[in-house]
Design a protein that fits this description.
Elements (H helix, E strand, L loop, with lengths): L3 H7 L4 H7 L11 H30 L4 H34 L9 E8 L5 H10 L6 H9 L10 E7 L3 H8 L8 E4 L6 H12 L3 H8 L2 H4 L17 E4 L5 H18 L4 H17 L6 H13 L7 H8 L8 H4 L23 H8 L8 E6 L4 E5 L2 H17 L5
Antiparallel strand pairs: 1-2, 3-4, 5-6
Helix pairs in contact: 5-6, 6-7, 8-9, 12-13, 12-16, 13-16
Length: 411
């Protein structure tokens, strides 16, 4: 039979087990009461430990979150991870793409874009202007291209015609060539009257002549010296001008006046003598064709003024009459105009045209000599002869008259 205590702990054993324990000592040792008691105590201890583990496991299972909560947590975690990936993609994609994308356009571009380079613009300022206009792709590309072109340091202010999406090198190549500036080119020749200059400017710029005439009335705005007394005649310096798009009539005339004043100042002419100098220069410009004769003509004028002699210059009479020519009529020379130097023994009250640099220089630095007379004996070549006495002068005048007789209709 089974031991009652052993059965209570281990449960009933099968008969084979009981048979083995009931065998005689010849088949195995027989456990005594003390040994069985010890084993029972150990077995109860293990049983209590097992029960504690089982209870802990049940408590753990009883505190386990429900399934819906676990699913919500997992879903939230995935959403956070996915959002982070999206944000990273949004912000990092341009950065990564920029690491591999060129900062320059590849070709010559297309279309047409007017770009203005202002006075004092640096390379960085020009680069920004080009980027904003859609001409080059980046300031970095332009600055690098400009650094590679030695001529870029000489880029002139003005308006240039470029293209959309040009390579930076192509844009620099356009800007370093002054011929690519969008300008109105006007050449004003020496000796023209102010009203003739207005007409010439208008022909090239499309600005009405009336706008120039109106602008000329504000001498202070044009920068005329006080001695000019608001009269622009004589101060519109003859030269080749390049006017940017949008340049007004006033601004154009002001540029020309500034050039005249600049020449006078360079020659050391003080403000109070500018008007006199310009008047004499305008007479020289009208009377002398060849540069080498101009200082001599200036000397004749100064010598006659010093002797209180009338200048008797046909150019002043023709100016008063509003016509060009190399001779005058008796009626012209009888005019009461203050510009008639056959009547008045002084300089005319103002310039009779707009002299160039050669005539201005001659007026400031006349030749040294005693001459009191001169006449152009060959108007076609400009050959001019000078005389000290009236008799000598009359011989030269006869030579001029012979030329006119041989060239009818030219005098």
């Amino acid at each position: 039979m089974n031991d009652p205590l052993e059965s209570s702990i281990f449960g009933d054993h099968d008969e084979h087990v009981g048979d083995h324990r009931g065998q005689s000592p010849a088949h195995g040792p027989t456990r005594g009461p003390s040994e069985r008691g010890e084993r029972a105590r150990l077995t109860r201890r293990e049983s209590r430990r097992a029960e504690r583990r089982s209870a802990k496991s049940r408590r753990a299972r009883s505190h386990k979150p429900p399934l819906w909560r676990r699913i919500a947590v997992i879903t939230l975690a995935l959403a956070v991870i996915g959002g982070g990936v999206a944000v990273a993609y949004t912000y990092l994609r341009p950065v990564v793409a920029g690491m591999f994308e060129s900062n320059d356009y590849p070709g010559p571009g297309s279309g047409e874009v007017p770009v203005v380079v202002e006075h004092g613009d640096t390379g960085a300022a020009i680069a920004t202007t080009l980027v904003n206009a859609g001409v080059v792709k980046s300031t970095k590309a332009y600055i690098e291209a400009a650094a590679d072109n030695p001529k870029s340091a000489g880029i002139q202010p003005g308006t240039y015609r470029l293209r959309k999406q040009m390579s930076a090198a192509a844009a620099v190549a356009v800007l370093v060539d002054p011929d690519n500036r969008i300008t109105t080119q006007v050449t004003i020749r020496e000796g023209l009257w102010a009203k003739e200059i207005y007409a010439e400017l208008s022909k090239h710029t499309g600005i009405p002549v009336a706008d120039y005439a109106a602008a000329a009335k504000d001498g202070a705005a044009l920068g005329l010296p006080p001695a000019a007394k608001g009269n622009v005649e004589g101060y519109l310096f003859p030269a080749k001008y390049s006017f940017d798009p949008g340049t007004t009539a006033k601004d154009q005339l002001a540029q020309m006046v500034a050039q005249s004043v600049k020449r006078l100042e360079a020659l050391g002419v003080p403000d109070e003598r500018m008007e006199r100098t310009v008047i004499i220069a305008s007479l020289v410009e009208a009377e002398a064709r060849r540069p080498e004769d101009r200082p001599k003509v200036a000397r004749v004028i100064e010598n006659r003024l010093a002797k209180k002699m009338k200048l008797q210059l046909d150019s002043t009479v023709n100016y008063a009459a509003g016509k060009h020519g190399i001779t005058t009529s008796d009626a012209d020379r009888a005019s009461k105009s203050p510009y008639n130097t056959y009547v008045h023994a002084s300089l005319p009250p103002g310039p009779i045209g707009n002299p160039g640099e050669s005539a201005i220089t001659a007026a400031v630095h006349p030749a040294t000599g005693p001459w009191l007379y001169f006449v152009t004996v060959n108007p076609r070549t400009g050959e001019t002869k000078f005389a000290v006495t009236l008799a000598e002068h009359e011989k030269n005048v006869a030579q001029f008259q012979a030329w006119c007789a041989a060239n009818k209709g030219t005098c």
